[in-house]
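Researcher: For the annotation table, I need structure tokens for DNA replication and repair protein RecF. Please keep the output clean. Sequence:
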Amino acid sequence: MTLRINTLEFRNFRNYEHLRLSDLGEITVLVGRNAIGKTNIIEGVQLLTALSSFRHATREQLIRHGSESARLEASISDGNRLLDVALTLDSVSRRYQLNGKGKRPADLKGLVPSVVFTPDDLNLVKGSATGRRAALDALGSQVNKSYHTVRLDYEKVIRHKNRLLKEEADAALVEAVNEMVITVGSQLTCYRAALFARIIPPLVEKYRHISQNGETLSAVYIPSWDDRAEVGNYPALLDAAIQRDQAREALVRALRERAAEERRRGRSVVGAHADKIVFLLDGQDASLYGSQGQQRSIVLAYKLAEAAVVEELLEQKPVLLLDDVMSELDGVRRAALVEAMERGSQTFITTANLAYFDQNMLDRSNVVSLPI
């Protein structure tokens, strides 16, 4: 059965000295003027579910000004089990607990998964490749503990290599680090490509529904070592599965061929940190040729596809965290989002205007007016 949040309690978190929300149902609508703290609640729920913050905040930013520590708690149940998840933040640490016992974040990954959708996500298609990789990694870290570990290991090794390149270290040192780049980087690329392959079917189907059978959406994951993408030859990449041995061999070759370039530029140019994700509409790059409406439909479809993948892999529906996105969507896309909310996922949604919701939905929701 799917775990649901029954109660939330924050102490000295962001702008809240004390906040308690109880008897939470399927849909909680947090309504209030801008800058009142609605987004802080969404962030707090994400810290207790996905164990991360879409704001990438430091501990000092999360702790209420003038306080030495903050604590967030959630009471969670599936009807049979009752679990208490807590996070304590202070100036030196971030500590999680489950039923009063200390836990590593990796041990809690996937326990109560969540999918967050914010206005910044609407730049997913036309924004940087870094944002698209980060979105995929955030999902992968929730559904696969090994994915989370490999991603962290890769980030450490690539930082180390970049430091050596910047310092113009001996070539033998860089070559030694490249061994780790090959091992961990090829694994991360394979993890990402496999996860993205799972996303594509629900992504395409949900886009077809949102666009009302308009143009055809496809998408491709492109490793940094595959130069076919440089000339826009995306169709050749669409059905190309990536095997680990293939990835290792290709990465070895690319690192050797571009070693002088990396030396000259003082940074790594080959590896999982330089992989790309491209969305295509009728075979053309949607970041270049898609309208704003089409791009937003892709983002909405992607978020709904994320939720579908979480449910498929973890066999439970994720918590949906929707931060002030209704004001950014038109009527058709709002309707598609409301339809998704009504399929059983517990949802927290913030808004400054209840007019975006029909009365039937509001009647079934727990509407919380802020401040409380």
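Researcher: And a one-line annotation?
Model: Residues 358 and 368 are 16 Å apart (CA to CA).
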